[in-house]
Write a structure and sequence with these properties.
Elements: H1 3-15, H2 20-36, E1 47-56, E2 63-68, H3 71-88, E3 103-108, E4 124-129, E5 132-137, H4 140-153, E6 155-157, E7 160-170, E8 176-182, H5 190-202, E9 207-214, E10 217-218, H6 227-232, H7 240-252, E11 256-263, H8 268-273, H9 303-319, E12 324-328, H10 335-338, H11 341-349, H12 355-372, E13 376-380, E14 393-396, H13 400-408, E15 412-415, H14 427-431, H15 445-448, E16 451-458, H16 465-472, H17 475-484, H18 492-506, H19 515-525, H20 530-537, E17 540-542, H21 548-551, H22 563-566, H23 572-581, H24 587-607, H25 621-643, H26 649-661, E18 669-671, H27 674-682
Helix pairs in contact: 1-2, 3-4, 5-7, 9-12, 20-24, 23-27, 24-25, 25-26, 25-27, 26-27
Amino acid sequence: MSADRVHEVKAGMIRTGMTAIQAIVFVFAAALSCHGADLDLMPWPAQVEQRAGVLNLSVQAPRFEVTGGDERVNSAVARFKQQLAARTGVASVIGRAAGEGPLFVIHCNGKGAKVQTLGEDESYRLTVGENKAELTAANPLGILRGVQTLLQLVQPGQQGWMIPYLQVDDRPRFPWRGLMIDTSRHFIPLDVIERNLDGMAAVKLNTLHLHLSDDEGFRVESRRCPRLQERGSDGLFYTQAQIKDLIAYARQRGIRVVPEFDVPAHALSWIIAYPELSSSPVPSRMARDMTDHERPVLDPTLESTYKLLDRVLGEMAALFPDKYFHIGGDEVDSRYWDKNERIQAWMRAHNIKDSEALQAYFNQRVQKIISKHGKRMEGWDEILSPELPKDTLVQSWRGPETLAKAAHMGFQTLLSAGWYLDLMYPASQHYAVEPFSGDSASLTPAEQSLVIGGEAAQWTEYVTPEILDNRLWPRLGAIAERLWSPASVTDQASMYRRLAILSRNLEWLELTHRTSSRRMIERIAGDAPVELLETLASALEPVKEYTRGRTQSYSTELPLNRLVDAVPPESEPAREFGELVKNAQQPSARAELRLQLVRWRDNDRKLQPFLPASVFLADLAALSHDVSTLATVGLQALDAIDRGQAPAPEQRTRQLATVDESSGEHAQMQIAIAPAIRQLVESRP
């Protein structure tokens, strides 16, 4: 149990009339039951009460009694049986149960909406007691969420597989908990998206936001305007039948699918198909490179622009049943409008003073189209304007100030700032993001109610289908917890412990975040012993934020098959090493540190002879050398602690200078252990 949760429980006990001593005793017992039993739940429930005893699953196959709800409930139970069998190795759980095995009672009081809607009841109660587990909910969505909790509770015990006795009363903190996947920069096949929908369901996310058009491609079949996929997709797009299948797949898992077609910028794939709608001369092909390509925007002064948008967006509105429809609206390069004399003349004639006002005009026109087709418009925070109808949804990506501004102006709003997975931040940094902080901390209760949740974002400039899972998981679990669990759930150590278990369990859903990384490293290693490359990789992480694009030129045609593409965004060995360094005064911690440092130090001598032979390894020489150097400095620091004698000031200065010199970035990677080595050098015996 986190310290925050302890204080919350204690405060609740005092409010209910317990004495301070009684409350402290209860809190101690609760801490033992919740934290001591190491429940592996993620996201953490709103309320959980653990009880003495366990439900044994190993004596006889469980029986199932399922009532109420709709087809999603039966589908969820069938998936639960399959996943339970996969995790426990007990195949009989998917057959017809007989005898006196434990009873799983699953009851749903209602059928839910025909098309899943924002704000549907996702709460549930799960009670596990003697020979029985009972899951009840008012809505099929609650059953879907509760089944995932039940599956996470299954664990090995002294008598076999078991579930601890407990009661969970759970509900989400925010109604919109999503993931945005960009399918334009690199096309993501349907099967890859589907397995990640399974992962999303496992952590109770409920919205998949698909970014379906950009300068690099238009990714959905249009039957009304087929030139869009014929000229603007390189042949990589989803048929309408595939989209329907994807939506049905998501619905079975309690996940809405919201489409995004980005206009008026990020629209080169539209313009390649319809060059007459461009605000400037049209390039010969869609964007390939990540920076320098000409990227004209749509001309908002032409009625033909809105006629095309009406045809296409109307068609897509009919294809995607969700109430919300995302129009993008971000990063409009106004230079294309400013340099167009005809556009400037039109603006003067219509009393539109600048490009910002011109985009506001465009957004109002598009909003009317979206509304005409029965949808609510959503866009990135650049669309924010008092002229828009208040049923517009604003997605904040530039910072919490735009979230607060949107709420102050009366708009519903989502937070994505701080949850951009493509920036390679560690899970702890994403976990620390709180929607009601900074400028949002001063929102009134009414304004807070307009903050309906958030979305993680995964842009795919440097992501292929092979890499996607590795970039999403397991960090997405930490963001899912921030959006589902109470605001008081903030214990970082607990989060990382449970995140590691989640990462392992996700492999049962055939997610490839761990296996693809291993396969890529094996491929890169070639004739080099793969364990040497894995040892080096364990000390590394990709560079952060937008640094990678500044180190070399990238295009969508450049293979992403180097070590930087294989290593996870956050090195678990490096993080664990950093935690050990915090306890370096303890002999047991120093022993573990020494073993790891010797391994990193000696790896360079063994690996260097193999590096010149391969183009995939040659640029790793400097990194390997620097990791070894840093490990050597770390061992010197451990020696000083062992002796109980601080090094001379000049020696420490030299060591810190060596750390600085050896902490550089190479091959688009950084040495993740460098900060911990510095901390070790600076520690006092």
